[in-house]
Predict the structure of Hypersensitive reaction and pathogenicity protein.
Amino acid sequence: SRHLALLAPFGELVDLSRETRVIGSGRPLAVPVGEALLGRVLDGLGEPADGQGPVAGDGWVQIQAQAPDPMRRRLIEQPLP
């Protein structure tokens, strides 16, 4: 139905109930990307979960983006350490 929502909370549920009004942000969920994130651990919202402080990415990518075509990307010449 248009008036129902299935929610998956990623944080505290303080002061929330079945009657709490839900308002969408109007933008899709995105996570930071870039070399600074190699080896980091993020939670479901792209927030650091490894105790190493804030993440500083080079940009943001939507999590629902189309996967890149593996046959069109550059060859991997050096594996990650």
About this structure: Residues 27-64 form one domain.
